[in-house]
């Protein structure tokens, strides 16, 4: 749900920003998304996904 929730919010935020022709989005993800954590593959993958989604937007 970490990544899906972020994606759903950004979907609507970006639409509004396009209409207004300005705006900023700031998403947060723990360092785990970059360095990884043992036994936490799904969590780390979702955090890395948030980082990539934000950079892509």
3D structure, described in words:
It is built from three helices and no strands. It has 57 residues and is mainly alpha-helical. The chain has one domain (2-56). The longest helix is centred in the first third of the chain and has 19 residues, at 2-20. The chain is elongated and about 45 Å long. It starts with a helix and ends with a helix. The relative contact order is 0.22. The mean pLDDT is 92.
> How is the biggest beta sheet arranged?
none
User: What is the typical, i.e. mean, pLDDT?
Assistant: 92
What low-confidence regions span 5 or more consecutive residues with pLDDT below 50?
none
- As a whole number of angstroms, the C-alpha radius of gyration is 13 Å
Approximate strand percentage: under 5%
In DSSP terms (H or I, runs of 4 or more residues), the helix count works out at 3
The percent range for helix content is 55-70%
Q: H/E series, N to C?
A: HHH
Secondary-structure content class: mainly alpha
The oligomerization state is: single chain
Distance between the termini: 19 Å
The count of DSSP E runs of length 2 or more, i.e. the number of strands, is: 0
Shape: elongated
Q: In the residues, how many domains can be counted?
A: 1
Keywords: Oxidoreductase
Pfam family, one: adh_short
Family: Belongs to the short-chain dehydrogenases/reductases (SDR) family.
Protein name: SDR family NAD(P)-dependent oxidoreductase
Features:
mainly alpha, single chain, 68% helix, SDR family NAD(P)-dependent oxidoreductase, 3 helices, 57 residues
Short structural description:
The protein is mostly helical and 57 residues long. It has helices at residues 2-20, 32-35, 41-56.
């Amino acid at each position: 749900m970490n990544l899906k929730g972020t994606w759903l919010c950004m979907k609507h935020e970006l639409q509004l920003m396009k209409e207004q022709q300005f705006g900023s989005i700031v998403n947060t993800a723990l360092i785990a998304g970059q360095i990884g954590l043992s036994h936490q593959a799904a969590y780390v993958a979702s955090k890395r996904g948030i980082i990539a989604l934000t950079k892509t937007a």
